[in-house]
């Protein structure tokens, strides 16, 4: 008795003759097939294939109605990127029939009656190919996953785990295009730690690194929408890309961020403006149009950051509103009386 490989197969027999189906069924079970399914018509064969997803098909050609060639074509169309070995098992012994069987997608062609040893040998050969194909699929999937992981790593900053400059460039580019298409506001915030040089100089570079990690964790945490992105784009410079965030929302976001940082009370031993670490940020918000570029947005956010620094730091300046988050909250001074009016 010739038996199949260790990995037992699920086999679909397609033959309109009941006696052939029963004979093959018995032979295949004797060889150690795990499961044998049978179909007597072309339509049933295709349905059984879709339902059971067999590992191998033994396919007759001559049947009432549609024939085995048609079935092979249907199966090849239905299996997507997979491959299911098809062995034609037929009484047709002309070379043209064999040619047509292989042309429509068959992998082997046996002429009935077939001896059990020959059938077992052919199935075993197909089983070996199937094993190789499955290993190849598994390796391809592993490679795909590894490639995805590599792409992620290429865009990650090693110290903080945030998106790095390269990822920032890609994301900002994509978000400008998206916001342009959907006519949505897009906010870019560039944040910079205040007096970080003094922090480093006083506490040393390793402590400076830890501080950067704390700030990064804070920025990452404050980006709660799945489309928000926190990036490290320079030594102590961070960027937040906030899709679908209008000017007012950006200012609320900025205040939340400042409050969160203040609540962490990270000691800055040499800050001229207080005992704790602070951030300054420049904000730009627009509904991008065809003329909006990454460089334009970054330049506006940088200018706003410069204004925040110039106004004493520890604040967030909006390029479009020309006001800082703190100034926006401050009660307005009553307008000075016009000249000549009595107070
Ligand atoms: N520890 C650490 N320090 C860094 C890193 N990258 C840049 N820096 C430091 O960040 C500091 C930036 O200094 P400046 O550009 O003068 O900025 P600043 O002292 O924060 O001053 P303002 O931004 O004007 O408030 C420098 O001391 C850099 O050495 C890093 O990866 N780790």
TrEMBL record:
Signal peptide (from-to): none
Modified residues (4-aspartylphosphate): 60
InterPro entries: CheY-like_superfamily, Diguanylate_Cyclase, GGDEF_dom, Nucleotide_cyclase, Rev_trsase/Diguanyl_cyclase, Sig_transdc_resp-reg_receiver
Molecular function terms from GO: diguanylate cyclase activity
GO biological process terms held by the UniProt record: cell adhesion involved in single-species biofilm formation; negative regulation of bacterial-type flagellum-dependent cell motility; phosphorelay signal transduction system
GO CC, alphabetical: plasma membrane
Ranges for domain GGDEF: 184-321
SUPFAM superfamilies: CheY-like, Nucleotide cyclase
Keywords, alphabetical: Phosphoprotein
Pfam family, one: GGDEF
EC number of the protein: 2.7.7.65
Domain Response regulatory residues, every copy: 10-127
Domain of life: Bacteria
Catalytic activity: 2 GTP = 3',3'-c-di-GMP + 2 diphosphate
UniProt xrefs under NCBIfam families: GGDEF
Name of the protein described by the UniProt record: diguanylate cyclase
């Amino acid at each position: 008795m010739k038996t199949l490989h260790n990995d037992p197969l699920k086999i679909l027999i397609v033959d309109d003759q009941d006696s052939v189906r029963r004979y093959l069924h018995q032979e295949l079970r004797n060889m150690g097939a795990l499961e044998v399914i049978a179909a007597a018509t072309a339509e049933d064969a295709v349905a059984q294939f879709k339902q059971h997803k067999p590992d191998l098909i033994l396919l007759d050609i001559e049947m009432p109605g549609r024939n085995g060639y048609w079935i092979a074509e249907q199966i090849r169309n239905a299996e997507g990127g997979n491959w299911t070995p098809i062995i034609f098992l037929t009484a047709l012994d002309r070379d043209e029939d064999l040619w047509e069987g292989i042309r429509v997608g068959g992998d082997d062609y046996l002429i009935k009656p077939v001896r059990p040893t020959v059938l077992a040998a052919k199935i075993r050969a197909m089983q070996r190919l199937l094993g190789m194909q499955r290993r190849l699929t598994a390796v391809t999937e592993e490679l795909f996953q590894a490639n995805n992981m590599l792409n992620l790593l290429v865009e990650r900053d090693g110290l903080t785990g945030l998106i790095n400059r390269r990822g920032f460039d890609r994301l900002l580019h994509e978000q400008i295009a998206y916001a342009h298409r959907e006519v949505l506001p897009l906010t870019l915030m560039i944040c910079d730690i205040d007096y970080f040089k003094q922090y480093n100089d006083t506490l040393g570079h390793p402590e400076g690194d830890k501080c950067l990690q704390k700030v990064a964790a804070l920025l990452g945490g404050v980006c709660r929408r799945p489309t928000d992105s926190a990036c490290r784009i320079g030594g102590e410079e961070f960027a937040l890309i906030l899709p679908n965030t209008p000017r007012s929302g950006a200012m609320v976001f900025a205040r939340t961020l400042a409050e969160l940082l203040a609540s962490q009370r990270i000691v800055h031993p040499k800050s001229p403006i207080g005992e704790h670490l602070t951030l300054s940020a420049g904000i730009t918000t627009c509904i991008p149009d065809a003329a909006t570029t990454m460089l334009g947005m970054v330049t506006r956010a940088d200018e706003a950051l410069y204004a925040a620094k110039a106004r004493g730091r520890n604040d967030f300046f909006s390029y479009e509103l020309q006001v800082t988050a703190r100034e926006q909250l401050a009660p307005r001074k009553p307008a000075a009386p016009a000249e000549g009016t009595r107070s």
